[in-house]
């Protein structure tokens, strides 16, 4: 199993640009989530999904969209990038809420 | 509001000593707790979890203690090794995973 994969590893955007961060898992997990981690900080939940076709907002959802058309994929879209979105983004999956979450390697995003 | 905090932002220990990392949580509805380890440039890695119907759980060299009365969680690492150097996060689950800000563990020879 590849586990949780994220692409790209690094990305630089200009203010106002849009892009999609990809996340995929091959463990047939129902629960997937996106976090951002700012320097010296903990992870903050952006959006999560409890299964295909179901998404919900986390702690910091503004400026981000998600969709979950398949169990495997959970892309995160930045609609109009802002410097405040410069961060490291982690995707995670788990069988359910009350299970260990498996994290991807992260995407380091810089918005100029 | 919901919050998970840590008392010690940086903990320095000598190799071979035991380490104790503390965490306070505020949501009394939380019934599942997890400790994660994050090494530089990597995603968080699961260490150990505990459910609210328990007060202690042991793994390999690690023990998690839960005190629901004072909403306190701790991670004990026995015989700390250089490879244990990392940032450690506690996380709670009332309805979704909420992370604390982390404690950096530094192990010196």
SSE pattern of chain B, N- to C-terminal: EEEEEEEEEEE
Kindly state the mean pLDDT of chain B as a whole number?
A: 89
Reported for the largest beta sheet of chain A, the result is: 7 strands, mixed
Class per helix and strand makeup of chain A: mainly beta
pLDDT averaged over residues of chain A = 94
Poorly predicted ranges of chain B? 1-8
List the helices and strands and how they pair.
The complex is a heterodimer of chains A (112) and B (109).
Chain A: E1 4-7, E2 10-13, E3 19-25, E4 31-37, E5 43-51, E6 54-57, E7 64-66, E8 76-78, E9 87-94, E10 102-103, E11 107-111
Parallel strand pairs in A: 2-11
Antiparallel strand pairs in A: 1-3, 3-8, 4-5, 4-9, 5-6, 7-8, 9-10, 9-11
Chain B: E1 4-5, E2 10-14, E3 19-25, E4 32-38, E5 45-51, E6 56-58, E7 62-67, E8 72-77, E9 86-92, E10 98-99, E11 103-108
Parallel strand pairs in B: 2-11
Antiparallel strand pairs in B: 1-3, 3-8, 4-5, 4-9, 6-7, 7-8, 9-10, 9-11
Report on this structure.
The complex is a heterodimer of chains A (112) and B (109). Chain A has 112 residues and is mainly beta. Chain A is built from no helices and eleven strands. In chain A, strands 2, 4, 5, 6, 9, 10 and 11 form a seven-stranded mixed sheet that branches. In chain A, strand 9 (87-94) and strand 10 (102-103) form a beta hairpin. With 109 residues, chain B is mostly beta strands. Helix content of chain B is 0%, strand content 53%. Chain B has strands at residues 4-5, 10-14, 19-25, 32-38, 45-51, 56-58, 62-67, 72-77, 86-92, 98-99, 103-108. In chain B, strands 2, 4, 5, 9, 10 and 11 form a six-stranded mixed sheet that branches. Chain B is globular. The termini of chain B are far apart.
């Amino acid at each position: 199993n590849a586990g949780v994969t994220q692409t790209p590893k690094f990305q630089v955007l200009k203010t106002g640009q849009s892009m999609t961060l990809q996340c995929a898992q091959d463990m047939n997990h129902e629960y997937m989530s996106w976090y951002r981690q700012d320097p010296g900080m903990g992870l903050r939940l952006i959006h999560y999904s409890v299964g295909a076709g179901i998404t919900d907002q986390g702690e910091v959802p503004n400026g981000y969209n998600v969709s979950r058309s398949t169990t495997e994929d959970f892309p995160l879209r930045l609609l109009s990038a802002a410097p405040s979105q410069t961060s490291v983004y982690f995707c995670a999956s788990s069988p359910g809420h009350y299970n260990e979450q498996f994290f991807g390697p992260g995407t380091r995003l810089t918005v100029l | 509001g919901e919050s998970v905090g840590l008392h010690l932002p940086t903990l320095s220990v000598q190799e071979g000593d035991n380490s104790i990392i503390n965490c306070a949580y505020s949501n009394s509805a939380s019934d599942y707790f997890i400790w994660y380890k994050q090494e530089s440039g990597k995603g968080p890695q699961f260490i150990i979890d505990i459910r609210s119907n328990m007060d202690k759980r042991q793994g390999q060299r690690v023990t998690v203690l839960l005190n629901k009365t004072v909403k306190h969680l701790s991670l004990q690492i026995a015989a700390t090794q250089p490879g244990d150097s990392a940032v450690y996060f506690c996380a709670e689950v009332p309805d979704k995973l909420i992370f604390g800000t982390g404690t950096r563990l530094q192990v010196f020879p």
